[in-house]
Design brief:
The complex is a heterodimer of chains A (261) and B (311). Chain A has 261 residues and is an alpha/beta fold. Chain A is 29% helix and 31% strand. In chain A, the strands form 3 sheets. In chain A, strands 11-10-9-12-8-1-6-7-13 form a 9-stranded mixed beta sheet, with helices on both faces. A 9-stranded mixed beta sheet of chain B has the order 7-6-5-8-4-1-2-3-9, sandwiched between helices. Chain B has a 5-stranded parallel beta sheet with strand order 12-11-13-14-15. Chain B has 311 residues and is α/β, with parallel strands linked by helices. Chain B is elongated. The chains are: A alpha/beta (261), B alpha/beta (311). At the A-B interface, helix 3, helix 4, strand 9, strand 11 and strand 14 of A face helix 3, helix 4, strand 5, strand 6 and strand 7 of B.
Chain lengths: 261, 311
């Protein structure tokens, strides 16, 4: 009966992120956040393992005010317990420090067999959390699993790497990172969502986990959208009679550009 | 300050590029470039890498036969202690990123992955993708700095005669990861990344058979056919996809057929010379980054384009 810890983070919804047209920098204020695509699948996979084999699922998140939203979502999906490390200073910490924070919390938790997390967040995508965490916990890591099974004391994962599909095995406890192909996360029912609002996650501060002095090791100087100048000449072919004109104009334009014969 | 650079990639075909880049960095900042070759029975590999004008640190240990990111990290940590580098350059491959994160956690230092460019003024600044399509410039405040650099960022240096190889013995436990089986990637018949004209199908394409229509257009325009992520990863119509987690392309002409244009897709096509969008939804984000577009049904547009291209 595996006990599983899932690390979950809210990511900026990059499909809704807008950039200031003059400075080309992202307008983060007001951009909605949601549980990262891979993180959501990590929660789903943990729940599926529990449904098959028993055990328990703990969700863990760190962050600013959004941590509570993450917990509500995790509870609504069906996790047993939630832990969050919150504080305004947390939103400014870099990945390398957040890994230390996650490890510090996990060392306070009772025994776990498996730690699952998304292979990458949907916004920053550094791909570092799983392997960094495994290192600090002193356990093996398998990254980008698209299929996961537990066989006795071992975890078996199927992973797509650049050169092929690898089936890899490690003894538990282990850290496994989850990729998009693994599952389609459940959408909680209204009842589950309502029920989740009554559940309270355990809240920890940096001080309580002995990391009051946490300081970022990397610094983002700036973020900008590279300038892409596109012509945006759009032909309307939405009605049948206009379509022939649209396709002719497109071919004409592409010939003029010298990209087709 | 010591300015040595250690380079390493578990992929020995990628390592020479990293050596080339590290040599460029060293030419600006000083210091020596060292290349780590780690594994079991790696004598030949060490010789091959030494031809790129670097001193090779050869770590030959039977316990390193099977890949384990944590173990590779342990070896690099010991090399870091012995050679005191200011910068450790790894490859931003899937396994390379794991090693980078593992090593950085061990050393308690900062790490930037997915790096595609480095600036030196006023300080060493690393460029990486963020929010799919944007670029972040980051610095590492701690030392040594660990970075993972994307393939094709730098060029391989010219080879010369065999260079110095230093055998380094390290203490390392056996790998904790067992490789049960490997299924090599199917040979991809249509290598979309080499195409001058890329006709790429998205979710607007309703059936696998309909890709035939895209192939006809590709044949008429001298191009190849690819698909967006859902068509490959979810529907398995093709083994590879165009986009952030798949292949990045830079053809002369990219045509997105029924491709909505999610940021993760756009980042994989943005270096195309001309971008064309064909979609019945005028709000499809691909139109925002297109040079030309047709708002219209692809099932009518494509036959018309194919027909007109024959003339």
């Amino acid at each position: 009966m595996p006990d599983i810890v899932v690390c979950v983070k809210q990511s900026i919804d990059i499909e809704q992120l807008k950039f200031d047209p003059s400075t080309r920098s992202p307008i983060l204020a007001g951009t909605p956040k949601k549980v990262g695509q891979m993180d959501g699948r990590a929660v789903e996979e943990a729940l599926r393992i529990k449904e098959r084999m028993g055990g328990s699922v703990i969700a863990l998140t760190i962050g600013g005010s959004e941590a509570e939203d993450v917990m509500r979502r995790a509870y609504a999906m069906g996790v047993d317990e939630g832990y969050m490390v919150t504080g305004p200073e947390l939103s400014d910490l870099d990945t390398n420090v957040k890994i230390k924070v996650l490890a510090a919390v996990m060392k306070k938790l009772p025994y776990f067999d498996l730690v699952l997390c998304g292979a990458a967040s949907s916004d920053v995508s550094s791909w570092q959390v799983g392997p960094g965490l495994a290192e600090l916990l002193g356990v093996p890591v398998i990254t980008s699993a698209k299929k996961l099974d537990i066989e006795g004391e071992e975890v078996v994962a199927e992973c797509d790497l650049e050169k092929g599909t690898y089936t890899l095995k490690a003894e538990m406890p282990a850290v496994i990172t989850i990729t998009l192909e693994i599952n389609e996360p459940r959408i909680p029912s209204l009842m589950a969502v309502l029920g989740a609002s009554r559940k309270k996650a355990k809240t920890l501060t940096l001080e309580e986990i002995g990391m009051a002095e946490a300081k970022s090791l990397t610094k983002v100087c700036d973020i900008s959208m590279p300038e892409v100048k596109r012509k945006k000449v759009i032909f309307d072919g939405s009605e049948a009679e206009k379509l022939e004109e649209a396709t002719s104009k497109l071919i004409e334009a592409l010939r003029r550009e010298g990209v087709m014969e | 300050m010591n300015k040595n650079i250690i380079t390493f990639s578990e992929d020995l075909d990628f390592l020479p590029e990293l050596i080339g880049g590290a040599q460029e960095v060293a030419s600006k900042l000083g210091g020596e470039v060292l290349a780590a070759v780690i594994g079991s029975e790696i004598e030949e590999e060490a010789k091959r890498i030494s031809k790129y004008g670097v001193k090779v640190l050869a770590v030959d240990n039977a316990n390193l036969e099977e890949f384990d990111a944590g173990r590779s990290g342990e070896v690099l940590e010991q090399l870091t202690m012995n050679y005191n580098p200011e910068l450790i350059v790894l490859g931003s491959t899937m396994r390379g990123r794991d090693i980078a994160a593992s090593l950085a956690a061990k050393l308690g230092t900062g790490c930037v992955t997915e790096v595609f460019k480095i600036d030196f003024e006023p300080e060493m600044t690393f460029y990486r993708s963020i929010y799919a399509t944007a670029i972040a410039r980051e610095v590492i405040a701690s030392s040594p700095k660990v970075i993972a650099v994307k393939p094709k960022t730098w060029a391989k240096p010219e080879t010369r005669g065999e260079g110095e190889i230093e055998e380094v013995s390290v203490k390392v436990e056996p790998s904790r990861i067992v490789q049960v089986s490997v299924k090599p990637k199917e040979a991809v018949a249509e290598k979309i990344e080499d195409a001058e004209v890329a006709i790429v199908g998205g979710k607007g394409v309703e059936r696998k058979e309909d890709l035939e229509m895209l192939r006809q257009l590709a044949a008429a325009w001298g191009g190849k056919v690819g698909v967006s992520r859902p068509l490959a990863a979810d529907y398995k119509w093709m083994p590879e996809w165009v986009g952030m987690s798949g292949v990045a392309i830079k053809p002369k002409l990219y045509v997105g057929v029924g491709v909505s244009g999610q940021p993760q897709h756009i980042v994989g096509i943005r270096d195309s010379k001309i971008v064309v969008a064909i979609n019945k939804d005028p709000k499809a984000p691909l139109f925002e980054v297109a040079d030309y577009g047709i708002v219209g049904d692809l099932y009518q547009s494509l036959p018309s384009l194919i027909e007109k291209s024959k003339k």
